[in-house]
Design goal:
single chain; 126 residues; seven-stranded mixed sheet; four-stranded antiparallel sheet
Amino acid sequence: QVQLVESGGGLVQAGGSLRLSCAASGRTFSRHAMGWFRQAPGKEREFVAAINWGGGNTYLADSVKGRFTISMGNAKNTVYLQMNSLQPADSALYYCAVVTRPYSDPTYDRTSYDYWGQGTQVTVSS
């Protein structure tokens, strides 16, 4: 059983920053890719960012390029999403997810992800 726990969400004013964290536990796997998705009320879950196991390959949605950065912790079981210049349109429930297949490339395809966290709420006020 894999558990993914997100943290770091909250309420912030437009132009502000937040850093989300996601810690994986419960099963040892290696060389996996991880990603962040978000879902606003009434909308489909959408891709935000993804990173490969080594952290050298990242993939970001066009809507967040230049504002968000994804990184992986030294232990390779934690992924971070640094969000700067936040806008009200960024308000959503943010989920992290993991691809357990080894040596996976970062991907926007949510069907490739095997486990998901419960989400952390990000609200950006105007």
